[in-house]
């Protein structure tokens, strides 16, 4: 299997793991839901996990890969405010946690580009 063939499956695996984590341990994610969003944080956490699982399935299947990968790129942009909130909220935490929260911020760009690349390569699928 070529590297480009594995990329969508790795992205799908990342999304599936994140989605499962949101559903299995929601309290950890509730804390980073921006307060400006309407409704309960738990609802947003569960919705985010469900979306990640759906995106994972879409990216894994060649027939839906392009659309799902584009939606994944948009999703990664959309959750960026939660990562910013986490970095701000964790500014007084111990250095390793603070560093991890801040380190997540620049990682969003490679995730967006990865999803966009999977979408672009999905166009070439038969």
UniProtKB/TrEMBL annotation:
Predominant subcellular localization, coarse grouping: membrane
Compartments, record wording: Membrane
Membrane topology: Multi-pass membrane protein
Keyword terms, alphabetized: Membrane, Signal, Transmembrane, Transmembrane helix
Listed GO CC annotations: membrane
InterPro entries associated with the record: Methylamine_util_MauE
Pfam families to which the protein is assigned, alphabetical: MauE
Record's signal peptide: 1-23
Domain (Methylamine utilisation protein MauE) ranges: 9-78
Name used for this protein in its record: Methylamine utilisation protein MauE domain-containing protein
UniProt source species: Streptomyces doudnae
